[in-house]
Amino acid sequence: MGNITVSDNVISEIAYRSICSVYGVEPDDKEFKKVRKNISVERTPEDNVILNIKLEVPYGENIVEFSKKVMKAISENVTQMTEKVVEAVNVIVVGVSEREFNKAS
Questions:
Q1: CA distance 86 to 79
Q2: How far apart are CA 44 and CA 17, in angstroms?
Q3: Cα atoms found within 13 Å of the Cα of residue 34, Cβ hemisphere only
Q4: Domains of the chain, with CATH numbers?
Q5: What residues contact 25, with CB distance under 8 A and at least 6 apart?
Q6: What radius of gyration do the chain's Cα atoms show?
Q7: Contact (CB, 8 A) for 92 and 53
Q8: What is the pTM assigned to this prediction?
Q9: Which stretches does DSSP call E strand in 4-85?
């Protein structure tokens, strides 16, 4: 047959849409799109995936629990859609957002 290669851009887009689902925003939300620039994808020698995400946590949320939700959503979606092993999802909390979100439960 042939080879199937999943680009880092595709993995980054899956991660972005996963983050949107946790925040409860649409992927085309202009104000939220800046998050897309804060996603980086690394590959291990075994072609496993490591994602580094910088984001703001909504004010009033438990930072650790919210970050774990983001990590879980990204890991599950990337694995399910690409069959790649997600070795790690690293969340770097860079601030607290005052914006109201429709957070998913």
A1: 6
A2: 23
A3: 5
A4: 8-97 (3.30.429.10)
A5: 32, 101, 102
A6: 14
A7: yes
A8: 0.91
A9: 39-43, 49-58
Give exposure, 76-102, as e/b (b: 16+ Cβ within 10 Å): ebbeeeeebebeebebeeeeeeeeeee
> At 94, which amino acid appears?
V
Q: What is the pLDDT along the chain (105 residues), one digit of tens a residue?
A: 898 899 999 999 999 999 999 999 999 999 899 999 999 999 999 999 999 999 999 999 999 999 999 999 999 999 999 999 999 999 999 999 987 777 655
Tokens at residue 36, please? 């897309």
Cβ atoms 42, 49 nearer than 8 A: yes
Residues in the chain: 105
Nearest to 70 by CA among 100, 94, 96, 91: 91
Give Cβ neighbours of residue 38 (< 8 Å, ≥ 6 apart).
Answer: 53, 54, 55, 94
